[in-house]
Specification:
By secondary structure, this protein is an all-alpha fold. The protein has one domain: DnaA protein, C-terminal DNA-binding domain (Chromosomal Replication Initiator Protein Dnaa, Chain: A, Orthogonal Bundle). The protein is 66% helix and 0% strand. The protein contains 6 helices and no strands. Helix 3 crosses helix 5 and helix 5 packs across helix 6. The longest helix is centred in the last third of the chain and has 19 residues. The termini are far apart.
């Protein structure tokens, strides 16, 4: 593990201030699926171990919440709304082109929908 990732894993958890609190659930669920921390999802990195999960989280945050693109960009480390839109479109392309990615995204969707419909008690 690189020094930068080790440092990120030891910092405090993120706080989300968005109109739809389910965004935090999306980020936490996707991070857990890929073996990352929530903070790692926000790092400005092009490492595929980080950008693919971040892209998946952006995809489901856009698909399953009422947050605007600019709001999601702010949540995902201060990115622009066009970055979120590009991630959404690229993830959709990958789902259509890659069966393994599509299967993983399907599993994530099942987990996220279960969190939506399961009463918290």
């Amino acid at each position: 593990m690189s020094f930068a990732l080790a440092e990120i894993r030891t910092t405090a958890p993120l706080r989300y201030k968005v109109s739809d609190p389910f965004v935090a659930e999306v980020i936490a669920t996707v991070a857990a699926e890929f073996g990352l921390s929530e903070r790692e999802m926000m790092v400005h990195s092009r490492d595929h171990r980080i950008w693919k999960p971040r892209m998946a989280a952006m995809y489901y945050a856009r698909l399953l919440t009422s947050c605007s693109l600019p709001e999601l960009g702010r949540v995902f480390g201060g990115r622009s709304h066009t970055t979120v839109l590009r991630a959404f479109r690229r993830c959709r392309e990958m789902i259509d082109a890659d069966e393994m990615w599509a299967g993983r995204m399907d599993r994530l969707l099942v987990k996220l929908v279960e969190k939506i419909v399961t009463p918290r008690g």
